[in-house]
Design brief:
This protein is α+β, with helices and mostly antiparallel strands and 230 residues long. 21% of the residues lie in helices and 27% in strands. The chain has a domain of 144 residues: Endonuclease/exonuclease/phosphatase (Deoxyribonuclease I, Chain A). The protein is globular.
Length: 230
């Protein structure tokens, strides 16, 4: 299970959230308190846990945690990743573009070495079907042409699969709603949370579900069942 934007430090997690529902937690915290951070909860102990991916700017923001489950026959990882938002201004949008460039290179390298599932808040709605008011958001962060082109490249030449969309092609399937106005009540949402997988793993996906029975935050949990065992 992956969680993003946990906004916590180790002292906040200690004694409370290291283990939840029989699952052990693994975390990458941001250096800045109350900011960013990601986690993974696993039932099986991974052979290795890797926090961070770029050894510089974005590792300081706590955006990547990877659990590796390697066997004699398979190298496999589960990753929780939190992509930056550029909505606060041009400076952060440029940081987001730097992140995307580094992430594309990192994912290409990783795909050449192992199978994986990346679960995360990608902060990009890929297609018009992925947000309610797409016409009014064409110049806004999260739906910029450059961001959408990055996703297209990742899902074509990058060789990864948007697993949810392979199972559910229907409109109005959103995972995030603004806290402003009545976005939740009116289902004026965005689909910006993904499970991105290498093709062999994606092919084992059987069921998808966006959990809407309770509201935990401005995001809804994205659940996908895969027919393989570690």
């Amino acid at each position: 299970m992956g969680v993003q934007e946990i906004k916590a430090q180790s002292e906040d997690v200690a004694g409370r959230f290291e283990r939840v529902g029989g699952l052990d937690g693994h975390f990458h915290y941001a250096q800045k308190k109350g900011y960013s951070g990601v986690g993974l909860y696993t039932r099986k102990a991974p052979g290795a846990v890797i926090a961070g991916f770029d050894r510089s700017e974005f590792d300081a923001e706590g955006r990547w945690i990877e659990a590796r489950f390697d066997t004699a026959n398979r190298k496999f990882s589960v990753i929780s990743c939190y992509f930056p938002s550029g909505s606060s201004g041009e400076e952060r949008q440029q940081a987001k573009f730097r992140f995307l460039a580094k992430m594309a290179k990192h994912l290409r390298k990783l795909r050449a070495e192992r199978e994986f599932i990346l679960v995360g808040d990608v902060n990009i709605a890929h297609q018009e079907i992925d947000l309610k008011n797409w016409r009014g958001n064409r110049k806004n962060s999260g739906f910029l042409p450059e961001e959408r082109a990055w996703m297209t490249e990742l899902l074509t030449r990058g060789g990864l699969v948007d697993v949810f969309r392979t199972l559910n092609p229907q409109p109005e399937q959103y995972t995030w709603w603004s806290n402003r106005g009545q976005a939740w009540a009116k289902n004026v949402g965005w689909r910006i949370d993904y499970q991105l997988a290498t093709p062999a793993i994606a092919a084992t996906a059987r069921r998808e579900h966006i959990y809407l029975d309770e509201r935990f935050s401005d995001h809804a949990p994205l659940i996908i069942d895969y027919a393989f065992k570690l």
